[in-house]
Amino acid sequence: MIYRSNLTAPDFQPYFKHTISQVRPHSQGHDVLYDFQDKADDDPVFGVYKRCGFFTHDEAAILYNIARQVGGGSWLDIGGLTGWTAAHLSKAGCSVTSVDPMYTNLDFLTRTTDNLREAGCAVGLVGCTSNLFFADDPDRFDGIVIDGDHESPRPLQDAINAAERTTPDGVIVLHDMIFPGPQEAWMYLNNKGWKTHGYKTPHRLTVCWRGGSVFVPPYHVPDPGVHV
Fold first, then answer.
1. Pairing assessment for the beta strands 73-78 and 20-23 based on DSSP bridges
2. How many domains does the chain fold into?
3. Rounded to an integer, what distance in angstroms lies between the CA atom of residue 101 and that of residue 103?
4. Residue 152's CATH number
5. Burial degree of 78 (CB within 10 A; 0-12, 13-18, 19+)
6. Distance in angstroms (rounded) separating the CA atoms of residues 169 and 215
7. pLDDT tens digits, one per residue of 165-221
8. Does residue 63 belong to any structural domain of this protein?
9. What is residue 182's three-state secondary structure?
10. Residue 116 belongs to what domain range?
11. pTM for this one?
């Protein structure tokens, strides 16, 4: 089952030609897209990435509408995988930089560029960890997606860095709030006075923004099959 949000977004699935849609134990009965179905499960490079799912369709629709609410601008996608999240940001009118250490692998990079080219999206791809990116790049962003390494303390480190690099009206989007690491990132931002709004989606999605910002989170009707 793929739950379609009340929020609309472009359908990129036909352009990501090596994805497979599967229900996993953590996805609460929802189909989740996974890339690299053409690779073996025990592939020494891509096997583990066959188990790294994208934003669900409803989560991607929420992100797309968040980006439109922000007004496009410059976005950073941490943990870009093979371009699914970045494609939605790009089509929302954003200038997107996607960071993932796997972009240093030619096959992984080629899969990502092929996906984005087929989807008609221009995205800057940077092959390094988020810590190295923040250390080397002084830019500020109107939006930052944190969906990289979920093991503590990496999400917290990403949140600390992101809070220093967003514009005054910028937002931070946390994915996979079902896991402790992203929850630590949320707690940090919440304790620093950021406003937050959580969405009842299979992986749990949360958007954070500073007090005084004009941002209003888009309204989303949760799937009744998702456990509260």
1. unpaired
2. 1
3. 5
4. 3.40.50.150
5. buried
6. 7
7. 999 999 999 999 999 999 999 999 999 999 999 998 889 999 999 988 889 999 998
8. yes
9. helix
10. 57-209
11. 0.94
